[in-house]
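<amino_acid_chain>
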Amino acid sequence: MTALSPKAHYDFDSVLQENHWTLVLCLFGICTAAKVLMFPAYRSTDFDVHLHWKALTLNLNHTSDWYFDDSFVSTVHTLDYPPSFAFMEYMWSNNYLTTWLRNHHWLDESCLALKESSSTRHTDHSVSCVAFMRTTVLISELVFWLAAYVWARLAASSSSHTPGASEASVSSSSSGDSPVSARGIHKNKFSWGLFLLLSLNPAILWLDHVHFQYNGFLLGILLLSVACLWRGLEAQQNTRSFMCWHLAAAILYAALLTFKHLYLMLAPWYFAYLLRKFCFIKNDEKVRFSVQRFLLLGSVTVATLVLPFYPFLSAPQLYQISQRLFPFGRGLVHDYWAGNIWALYMAFQKVVPKLPTDISPFRVAMILLASLLPGCWGAWKAGSTKNLKDAQLKMLQSFFYSALASFITAYHVHEKAIVTTLLPMTIWAMITTTTATTTTQQTDRHRGLLLFRTQAFALTGLLPLLFPATELLLKLTTLGAYLLLMFHFLEPAAAADSCFDWKRGNFLDACMTARQQVFAVVLVLIVLVFVLEVLPISLFGRFEFVPLALTSVVVASGLVLSYVEILFSV
């Protein structure tokens, strides 16, 4: 076969850019069809949890009964999300289409009946009930696809305004080398690289469409909120668009908190950034604090937070909700330790028995707040930076640092919470590699490697959630394909064949080439997956916990290393 000419390659990129909207719809259709085929896949007890919530909002007529549902039926699946999520469950079970399906027996009556938690196992649900529940996830995920599309457009627009980026790409192309910028952006209309890395992230597939949750919907709201802040940076400070973008970001984040309270750890970052960027006005080279803007921002945010709680404003209701939302009695870690410092602490505790066996939630909260301070400082600097490009990248970096810090240090963290870090970090790394110039090439390669390592360890840490052997092929193929896809779009980081400058990288960058680092990470993960997925559990005898504990410790080591690198660069 003859190689494609440069003209043919250009024409192919032009097709991708000119028809990106049509191709996005085609990709969405293909992915949706694949997810429909996965309806019979393994589903966790979270399926029963959400099914119970839909049943209680359908069968308990008064909202005052929702958070006291265990007094009406014996169940362990109590409503432990904020009111907006409860209202979303109400919407799924109380609408014209659902009623029509039930009346015409397309959806069996027992599906949304309020049942004892022990009366139905997650394998006993009818086909129509499973299809109904899985479809609600597919529909809600439209928000995530919208957010991925918005960021792909923003990233492409950002690359077109970066001085030197296009010149570097042209000069490298003319000399026969691959351009410094990452693949996936052409004519600055749509970043295919970023869009694919966001929309095809296997964590969303595993958590929502197999394990069963609504993470895509929630993360979509979060990414749209950050996108509004990005657009706000592009607007002039005293214009109406500046005000609207920042208020929209605050409203979206406040609304997100009323859907899932675990995003509360990002509140200090939002407070620091919006306080500096929105509430301080520059007039005649002087910066002054605007009380009017502060009150406007505060009133809009508080109104958004309070409105969903209005039906539950009585003292007993608020106390019951607080007990459901913050169950500190569950302990410092899960049975399967999330890959953070507490996993390492639990491992050391096995070796050094003198370590305290329990750490109070208050002490953990102090550690968490201390770890969030660098992110708040980074947010403040981003809000005061004059250069647009620097401000945008500082904003993204301090944001995903705060998300990672909360995962690394918070109390009773779910392993799934790492996805809150992975998505904005992907945006940051893709934009920096896309807009790289010849003078920043080493730094941007380091960022691509940092993303690759963090994604690889984080995604491996999610593998135990899909423990049935029937899901092994799905897990390994999607993980491997995604890492190859990321390797392709971050090619400048992967293609480096010389060690980096010590002062511009980290210890690994000074000792190993980029290819060696990628190979080392992949080799460690292959060994880990072999121990976790291939070796029979009986081989470990009474130490059957070793595969999961080893996974937690290895993943925690990789993620803590990434955290330290990011901490010293915020």
